[in-house]
Design goal:
The protein is an alpha+beta fold. The longest helix has 43 residues. The mean pLDDT is 87. It contains five helices and eleven strands; from the N terminus they run αββββααββββββααβ.
Length: 263
């Protein structure tokens, strides 16, 4: 190949490379805009923060590791005197997990109108729905129904970590119970547990992303560290955030903190 031919080939290669880089930048910008749009849609589906209903107050803090979050929560009254809430953590990250949180909100809202307010039955119905749709996604979940007159809390735990904590008179106790992940095993069983929600108490919940930023060797050690920091915070999210390690590179996973308290 002569020198002029080499120069022409080099110029063509350079032009092609510049075009490919321009196309890549355009694709990345479109992806960024799509992610931002999804972020705003997902945020609009969340409840007001804070929010109060018949003497119970919801506070939360949700920080996605990317634009979109696989964590989601809700808090509303589908029937008079009944307050339903949940915190869900969908497997994975990004858009595919965020889409499941939107489907989850729709399913629970629909089933809660038909059901007699059993969190365990709601979990069973969502479990079968996710498996039937073949989404290849599962989630962990804590869901509760509070009778605002009797203060009876009925709840179920779908393999959710860290274990929700009840704070009352300065004491911190873990909610008892266990259960299977939601959307992973056909016919998975869930159980309703009950306890009294203290008049001035606080239920503190979080997604498992918080455990990844805590010190300690093994799950048990990190859960104990979590319990100690929640106790030191007095059940206040702002106070707890000051007690969590700061990461200059951002959170390694979606992190959600959620409290229900008497007001």
């Amino acid at each position: 190949m002569s020198k002029p031919e080499q120069e022409d080939a080099s110029l063509v290669y350079q032009q092609r490379l510049e075009q490919e880089n321009a196309d890549l930048r355009t694709s990345l910008e479109l992806l960024r805009l799509d992610q931002q749009a999804g972020y705003h849609v997902q945020r609009r589906l969340l409840p007001a923060n804070p929010m109060e209903y018949q003497g119970v107050r919801l506070d939360y803090w949700l920080q996605p590791s990317l634009y979109l979050s696989g964590d989601f929560l809700d808090f509303w009254s589908p029937h008079p005197g009944k307050l339903l809430f949940y915190l869900a953590d969908v497997s994975g990250h990004g858009a595919s997990s965020a889409f499941v949180t939107i489907l989850l909100k729709y399913l629970i809202s629909r089933y809660a109108k038909e059901d007699e307010m059993s969190p365990a039955r709601l979990c069973s119905r969502v479990n079968e729905e996710l498996l039937t749709n073949g989404l290849d996604k599962h989630l962990t979940l804590v869901m509760g129904c509070l009778d605002t007159e009797t203060r009876l809390l009925t709840y179920t735990l779908g393999a959710h970590l860290p274990v929700p904590l009840m704070i009352s008179d300065g004491e911190v106790t873990e909610l008892e119970g266990n259960g299977m992940p939601v959307g992973l095993f056909p016919g998975a069983g869930y159980k309703d547990y009950t306890c009294t929600f203290p008049e001035k108490g606080c239920l503190f919940m979080a997604s498992d992303g918080v455990l990844e930023v805590l010190p300690g060797q093994g799950l048990e050690a990190r859960q104990q560290e979590w319990k100690a920091r929640v106790a030191a915070s007095g059940g206040k999210i702002d106070s707890l955030l000051q007690r969590l390690p700061n990461s200059p590179d951002g959170w390694p996973d979606d992190v959600t903190l959620m409290t229900l308290s008497g007001c």
